[in-house]
Input
Amino acid sequence: MKKHIIIAVSIFCGSVAAFGQDIHFSQYNETPSLVNPALTGSAYVMRAALIYKDQWGSVTVPYRTYGASYEMKFKASNWEKADPFRTKSYKKAFSRLAGGLAFFSDKAGDGGMGTNLVNLSLASFIKTGDLSTLSVGLQGGIIQKSINFNKLVFSNQYNGTGYDKTPAVGEDYSSHSFITPDVSAGLLWRYEKEEESIGENNQLTANLGVAMFHINKPSQKFILNGNDKLYSKINAHGSLLLGIPHSSVALAPSFFFSFQGRQKELLTGMMVKYYLKHDSKYTGYIKRSSVGLGVYYRNRDAVIINMLLEMGQYAIGFSYDLNTSGLATVSTLRGGPEVTIRFNSGNRFLFQKR
Output
């Protein structure tokens, strides 16, 4: 009986959190549009990704979340003519604008609480030094939420011995779904120092940013005459890629902090990358490949084991949440798996395909 009470309370708390908290993933570095609009186009000329998460299958009806994203700099080439009168005189280009489109969908619990999110991001870059930039990002989109009220259970439907679905629940539902606009913005500082020569592995990349989501506080209107607002959300994040010189190893620590109303989330950890192959410095034909293994911790919730295989312009990531919260009593540590697939343009070397 105690075990069933724990399950019921946990599912209820999870449903409340799902209503008041945004879609989020354990591999937060692979979902830039959910972290900061200013990340759009900051790392690659072009980037496309798919992601899928399955959670709480060991406890209740699984919470399933998936998404797709695409982003690119509007000036695709990394080189431009240095002298209009000379045919083979080039200099490194600086792209000042980038755009992105992303879609995410989430289905949570017995009530089928569904969230669909479509957002369009735009980022502009300002040089702050030879190796650093400041980017400003804006994001606009729509949020669509739905729920199946017929699958919900209320306290007055318990007759003392069991569940009876015949009594009226006494709730006034305005709609099973609604759509609302959404506005977000962010800032990002980025520092990028590339390898000085092939295989030297002395690169250094750093990101530090802050963003505000749901600036317009969109309404949530499942209940008739309801006037609930979606809390604005503040994200702070940072990451580092530090190559250990004259080795095949790089360290990639990162953190992500978010608070939205009474909901707070802190994720921090580090990935160790081992390079199997280095880039070709001048032709661009040979792309860097690496294997990464990381461990992250979501405060008072889960330990996350993450593996990432990067093969030139392609990457496959897999992570698993080991639940450490109070729900671990019934979940037996099983949070859920997450898979991501990414394709991005090559690094910025002299040779580039059209």
